[in-house]
Amino acid sequence: MSRSFTATMLRAIRLMRARKQTKTARELNKVMAGFMAPSVLAALTPKPAKSRKAAPPKAGQALGTVLKQLSVAQSLMSGAATPATRETMPGIPKGGQYLARTHRSAAGSRDYKLYLPASQPKRPKGLILMLHACSQTPDDFAAGTHMNALAEKHDLCVAYPAQIRGHNAASCWNWFSPRHQSRGAGEPAILASLTRKLMKELGLGRDAVFVAGLSAGGAMAMILADLYPDIYSAAGIHSGLARGSARDVISAMSVMRNGTAPNGSATKGSATNGGGPIVAAHTLPALPALPALPVRLIIFQGTADSTVHPANAAMIVDAAVGGDAVPTKIGKRSVGGRGYARSDYAGPDGATLIELWMIEGAGHAWSGGRAAGSYTDKTGPDASAHMIRFFTAKAA
User: Fold this and answer.
1) How far apart are CA 136 and CA 144, in angstroms?
2) Could you tell me if 245 and 163 are in contact, meaning their C-beta atoms sit under 8 angstroms apart?
3) What gap in Å lies between CA 96 and CA 293, rounded to an integer?
């Protein structure tokens, strides 16, 4: 972010911390929600040509002036994020089906793309729900992760739900809103309903159902794993965040940029009932009683990620197994010239519950991805292949 934009944001945060929010302050929160994702994603895209910058607010400046500056910043950042919205069709293996569908539920509706493998179109061995990042589309995400080709190889079905600008100005999943962090409501309820529908259609049980996502999609995948352990047996979190690490746009920006809550304290998580509620810095509604069904996690995080602070990966592990947990296995290797450290954590039964992959020098992009999609990095371990390996090892 530019210095002027950062100064504007700091001014906005101070105004938002007033004891009582005025109508104008509430409007400010809406404006911030619109540009939050484009602004943090701007670091991943080429900088636009030199243009007019928003000046930092002066002491005593009216909130209306700050709003105008934020609007300018929003337009600049939206332009910078344009490359991620390109239309890209993913590769479709011979005989495979890539269908456009719409799912409707009591909580709401979403369009989605569905890949059915040629080998097992009616009875695949498993289902992966893939959640894209901000400003991406299902097609873009499918192309970048090359998940369809891997799904064909392993007889898996893949669903790619779509978030549109009508639900978030930057097409982000609203992982930072309390309304979308509770079971039975909001986007988690829509996505869980879609998953249940496909499970019934394809004849699949929980052990063969998985969820994965990148960035905001990774955060929402973690929310689903937390809220619906009765549906998902494993989750792949790439550059994501723990449920409860934010409660609004301001706290989301803080934890993404610094790995801390807005007050400067590091967020810490705790877990209950085996894969149950992840509660970080902000108090969340209690979950209804659920069976003790641990959800296995495979987590990928770049150490040079300037969009989602690397500390968030540790927060996810902390929330799942506790801050005092010790890895049962640690290994350091390199692939394609890029090093990585993998730490395994065991569950109560001694089997691997979590794989944490910290990728040296990697930014905010899908590791081992394809250039056909946005926010991918072809260097490093193939996150898609390792997620499927992790998912299917237990399901076999």
Assistant:
1) 10
2) no
3) 33
